[in-house]
Structure formats: C-alpha cells, structure tokens
Amino acid sequence: MALYSEKVMDHFRNPRNVGVIEDADGVGEVGNPVCGDIMKIYLKIEDDKIKDVKFETFGCGSAIASSSMATEMIMGKPISEAITLTNRAVTEALDGLPAHKLHCSVLAEEAVKTAVRDYYDRNGIAYDPSQFPSGEDCAHCDRA
Ligand code: FES
Fold this sequence. Notes:
Layout: H1 6-13, E1 26-31, E2 38-46, E3 49-58, H2 61-74, H3 79-82, H4 87-93, H5 102-122, H6 139-143
Helix pairs in contact: 1-2, 2-4, 2-5, 4-5
The structure holds FE2/S2 (inorganic) cluster (FES).
C-alpha cells in the first residue's frame, strides 16, 4: 500500500486556496517547533460565515495537503462550524495520513482556530478560550 493516499498526493500537488487575503478579517499563524513547519490561514468573514479562506504553508507535503483540505472543509461554513474542525476530520477527509505525519494535520486545525480567535479578538467578540489552542501547549507536537 502506498504511504500517501491519492487525496493527499492530489492536495499536495494541486493545493486549493493557496495565497494571502490582504484585508483578512482574521489571521492565524501556527508552527511546530519540532519540525519547524509554519502554517498561516487567512479568513474573510461575512455574516458569521467563512466567505473566503487562503493559506500559506512552509512545511512538508502532509502539512500542505492538510491545510488545503482544511480550507475546502471550512469554505462557506458558519464560524461556529469552522471552529469545530478537528485534525481527525482533516485526516479522514484525506483518506488518512501515516502515523508519524498526523501532527501535520494538527497544524491545520490550530491555524483555522487561531484565525477565528484573531477575528473574535479584533471585533471584541467574547468566546470560550478553551475552544482554542493555547499556543503554549506543544505537547501534541511530539505526541502525534
Ligand atoms: Fe512538520 Fe509535517 S513534518 S508539519
């Protein structure tokens, strides 16, 4: 069996929604200190919906595929749905990732959530901090 699914290879070779949104309403940048990879998600939000989303990922193929898939999964969705995105859902949508690459999908989940939190912060919208990554807990980096 191939190490990477067709879907991973497709999103790695033809990533969707790559780029920058200059006037983004929320931006989330996260990094994995272990591998050094960095992911940045830009959100355009209108009427509590993700009107547009773009990403820049400086990282491995699995991180690129994960961010590409994550953008497709939240595009057009209400914010309330976008913040429930999990790395497991991203991995499943990609038809799986090798075990030692699961942490790459964690970056995608965290980048989306960090961008939503940035949107909330910019607009003074109250939220439950426990719904978001702390940015200090790197335990998942070597666990996944
Ligand atoms: Fe770092 Fe994939 S190896 S995110």
